Amino acid sequence: MYQEPLNTFDLWADDEAQGNHERILLALGRVMRFLDEKLYREGESHPSLVPETLLVRDGKDVDLDFLEKAEVRREAGFLFYRAPELTDDTPMTPQGEVYALAAIAYRAFAGHPPTRGKRRLWSWQADLTLNIPDQPELSKAILEALSIDPSRRPQNLRALHASLFQAYAPLAVGSRPKVEKRFPVNLTVGKDVRVPVDKVLAGAEGWGVRWFDSAALSISFDEATRELVCAPVESGEHRIEVEFTHPDRPRHPLISEFSQVTINPDPDSLWKNLETDPTAPFQKPHVAREVMTTPFARVFAASQRGRSHAHEGSFREDDFRLGFHEPSGWHLLVAADGAGSAKLSRRGSELACLTSQACLTKWLETGAGRLDEAIIPLVAEGESGKLKQQLYLWLVAAAHSSQQAIQAEAAGMEPPRPAKDFHTTLLICATKKVEAGWVLVSFTIGDGGVGIRQGDGTPIAFCEPDSGEFAGQTVFLTVPNVFRDAEKNMSRLHAAFVKDLGSVVLMTDGITDPRFPTEASLKDKACWDAFWAEVSAAARFEEAGADERLLRWLSFKSAGNHDDRTIVFLMPPAGPTGAPPVAASN
């Protein structure tokens, strides 16, 4: 018959249990801390935990050196402390150690060990009772740790330690630190956040505090600023565990609490990048870029499918075309933004650009001379009336031809399609170097923007963005009555003479919405300065490969702005320019 040895923990506990629950609990706590900090961090476990291994020397405390080296004979009494899921030959598990320490605690407070684990697997012997005087929560915590279901126990000795000490009444009440059960802010993967510690923890004055980090949270404590520094890398629900010790409590018993933390995923990771249907008509590449160099200017253009279209596997709806009419010296820049809601807008924007560019070029073959004459009052006196009459015949006519081309293609499809399926905006800008500076003209229908940045950084808003009936709407080239109002179309024409040109920019609303969110922004020098600093640093226009870098810049992040992005820059060359073919100021 098994006899427990003299001078062991359970006999000492019998003597002490008549009024010194805290001393027993502290001794068990010291054992749990020792095993956790010395053995488990090295991946080891204690082979057998029974009262025999908890030797008490001089009636004071458990001998930890003996505990580490103790070997136990596997006799009958051993089975009282063996978890029911473990056989004699099964290696010890963390849940098995929890069961063993809880069984030792049960023995210390009840005066006898619990029913053997294997016998408790039989339903009529599964339940245990424990009634520690004035300690209902501690009794409950010990019984929970003795569950025959390992998943219902604390999962390791650290968790058992926290459970017992938080349940023990003298330590569970009164002045002790309080941790918010839920972290006061939701975190986001990839976004570093600093949270003042007093928003998470209260009443910790005089306590030792230890924060337990996790790889997902990547949390640290900045002592200088008294802040929690969070740099989360994994989304989901997580816990921040906090341990407290107090120097005035015997042997510094641990108290553990935790705060639940919600980490949202990085929004960028939720975006899909789906390919388009290869069988759909009017295929269009996801990106486009071009560089054009003339004797008088450098032109850079880039266009990229927006994240919203990539997420849905739809096409890039934007388009652009660059041209230079060498006999007259006019640079011809066209960009268009197909409506995302229109099924064939990618073709609408393409037709608008192709047709406009062709019409602009063809008209110059016979109308360039009239333009040169009309330019003279603009250059000499800033008078644009005569020039706008020619521009109506040139720019507005080119846009109207684009509308007709779209209508013809829609009607010629089988079956015929409505022109609204090809909805698109249109931005036209033409520039010419003259002896005294630069002449610039534009015509636009819809949103987006055209702007001039002068050499000193002063901006000129060179368009009149069209607004629809409701917020977020615009006017499209393909609306049937858009060319019936001659006065409105005249107001869409712009002309300017600039002595010192920095750059001309055409932008679809994928650029203007995040960078020039209001009409006033196109006139705001601060907005233009910030925009130019950002783009010029990214593209480095003076170096080779600027078009590739400009295309990469189009991937900039802007909350809520995920449309296609197209931009065209025209700027004078870095060195001296040649003489223009027509001295329009004469």
Biggest sheet, in brief?
6 strands, antiparallel
Q: Radius of gyration over alpha carbons?
A: 39 Å
Report the CATH superfamily of the largest domain.
PPM-type phosphatase domain
Envelope shape: elongated
Name the descriptors.
586 residues, alpha+beta, Immunoglobulin-like, Phosphatase 2c, domain 1, 3 domains, 15 helices, disordered N terminus
Describe this structure as you would to a colleague.
It is a single chain. The protein has 586 residues and is an alpha+beta fold. It has 3 domains: 164 residues, Transferase(Phosphotransferase), domain 1 (Orthogonal Bundle); 91 residues, Immunoglobulin-like, CATH 2.60.40; 285 residues, PPM-type phosphatase domain (Phosphatase 2c, domain 1), CATH 3.60.40. The chain is 32% helix and 21% strand. The chain has 15 helices and 22 strands. The strands form 6 sheets. It has a 6-stranded antiparallel beta sheet. Strands 14-15-16-17-20 form a 5-stranded antiparallel beta sheet. It has a 4-stranded mixed beta sheet with strand order 4-11-10-7. Helix 1 packs across helix 4, helix 6 runs antiparallel to helix 7 and helix 10 runs antiparallel to helix 11. The N terminus and C terminus are likely disordered.
Secondary structure elements and their pairing?
Blueprint: H1 9-16, H2 21-39, E1 56-57, E2 61-62, H3 64-69, H4 94-110, H5 117-120, H6 136-145, H7 157-167, H8 169-172, E3 178-179, E4 187-188, E5 193-196, E6 201-202, E7 208-212, E8 219-222, E9 227-230, E10 236-245, E11 255-264, E12 287-293, E13 298-304, H9 307-312, E14 318-325, E15 330-337, H10 345-381, H11 385-412, E16 426-434, E17 437-445, E18 449-454, E19 459-461, H12 486-491, E20 493-498, E21 501-507, H13 509-515, H14 525-539, H15 546-553, E22 565-571
